[in-house]
User: What shape does this take?
Amino acid sequence: RLERQVQIAENRSVTTVQWRLENVAELVEDTPRGKHVSSPSFSLGSLFPVVLHFYPNGDDFAQDGFCSLYFHFPAHTTVRRVLFA
Assistant: This one.
């Protein structure tokens, strides 16, 4: 609990997060549609835990050939986000 509070305090001013995925071609090949890869949990500003779920072959609603990315924030959180490719 103390470690979590320290992490939140240290990351209060964080406004940008990068999650680098290695061997994406292998992820696409080895991860079936509807299955995701999770980022490590992290704090963003005063929010914790934040987790990203990446679906290399898309979730159940994605068009063929597309991936999906979900942001998981604490309940009752409102955020603005911008994605850059």
About this structure: The chain is about 20% helix and 20% strand.
